From TrEMBL:
GO terms for molecular function: nucleic acid binding. It comes from the Eukaryota. Pfam families: DDE_3. Residues 2-52 form the Tc1-like transposase DDE domain. This is DDE_3 domain-containing protein. Signal peptide: none annotated. InterPro entries: RNaseH_sf, Tc1-like_DDE_dom.
Length: 98
């Protein structure tokens, strides 16, 4: 959740509330602190040029591509979080290299 309006709509908020999911406060639209953006880029790279003839096929392709991303990629992104946080602090909230 990065406080993007589509993530904070009443419908989404109710979904989380019904499932008793506690959300952390997060700066609005802060890709510096959001490693999932890098995961989406990885997924896009893996699906570049891949075509689907219907929604079910597309879902299967997305799922297969997601599962093919090595855990080392995830771990590297998670390990980068302290550096990301420090970079944001050092930049006084301005954009960073992340």
């Amino acid at each position: 959740q990065d406080n993007d309006p589509k993530h904070t709509s009443g419908h989404v908020a109710n979904w989380f509330r019904r499932r008793r999911v506690d959300l952390l406060e997060w700066p609005s639209q802060s890709p510096d602190l959001n490693p999932i953006e890098h995961m989406w880029e990885e997924l896009e790279r893996r699906l570049k040029g891949v075509r689907a003839s219907n929604a079910n096929q597309k879902f299967a392709q997305l799922e297969a591509a997601w599962k093919s991303i090595p855990m080392t990629v995830v771990q590297t992104l998670l390990n980068s979080m302290p550096r990301r946080c420090q970079a944001v602090i050092d930049a006084k909230g301005y954009p960073t290299k992340y």
